[in-house]
């Protein structure tokens, strides 16, 4: 696994150096103002932006420029092969807020959309803004009530909102040096893409808006994410396997804060997740840290989490999670669903300050196996007033289950290797619902190895 990490980081470095040169690649530049864009934030510039993209693509590729100082209001624009959309620093691309601004098919509701494209990209130092606040029907500090465009019948409830940026069935995707701001739904979405590079982007979503994920990697392979700042209300970096496996995902040097999971697998998990590396990541005051939610029969294997700092806290019982720093689960979504397995997962050089413990839960037919913790420091400290004493199996499965929580909860695990793990408890005698440092059910756990395990009480001064 160490070799896998080294190779992934080397490939990332080589790819980064190649992509940083794209602005000086000698291709032509097509300014949207030359095609009639006004940039006043009031009149739609969709036709001008699309005309510039089409002309750039027809010429063999290049850059489409949104000059600094303009607010360019648009309906969906379609990015094409060989075209890099350059939103200059000081410029904003504003997504429209009317249903008529987007295609009829809800699956194509994006402000910027690339379909079956090769070598399309976005950069420039400016901002793409989804005007997500315009979709809030009722502000609520627990969870906003949102607009719903469900007249198509293809989506239900308040999840019928447009995403910000999407690449579908594309390859050699590049998004770097740009801010993605206030998505109404998911922010950056990669679907069935191959060889994507996401570097030095900032994502800001409203903290009380549901479903405003940061980056969703769905059915996509060979994805590299580096030096990103993500501050949003829902899952920050989330991989999903809906129509095919997700293979070779590398995430390095990122900062994350979220009201949900900082890093998540699933819960859409019909196919496998393989060969993932997460290294040098800071997770700050998130509702849940590292989460694996396998619900649909897919399998997870060969995953490395290394050099990660985590702080988690309770935000609200409405949101899935109970402030677990690490949450690994495999259980069927429905009674007739297949159980998936999770194997060969390594956590190395992890430090966490959290309001809850680590949660490892497989099932009888979907065991967790070969899970390794090495050089892990865990500090348990409660500072919010939400009640504890609950296991959170959501989505579905058993829901919320009343139970004293533990520093490490283990069930249906075969092969757990603990090396140099330290637990520290602040004011543990004052916390209701806390249990012992380790809780497991003997008839569902075997092949345990403990070396240099320590748990100690400490008083918070």
UniProtKB/TrEMBL annotation:
Q: What's an example of a GO molecular-function annotation for this chain?
A: polygalacturonase activity
Signal peptide interval: 1-17
Q: Which UniProt keywords apply?
A: Glycosidase, Hydrolase, Signal
Kindly give the InterPro entries that the UniProt entry links to this protein: GH28_Enzymes (IPR051801), Glyco_hydro_28 (IPR000743), Pectin_lyas_fold (IPR012334), Pectin_lyase_fold/virulence (IPR011050)
Keyword Hydrolase annotated: yes
GO BP annotation list: carbohydrate metabolic process
SUPFAM superfamilies xref list: Pectin lyase-like (SSF51126)
| Family indicated by similarity | Belongs to the glycosyl hydrolase 28 family.
Q: What is this protein called?
A: Glycoside hydrolase family 28
Q: Which organism is it from?
A: Rhynchospora tenuis
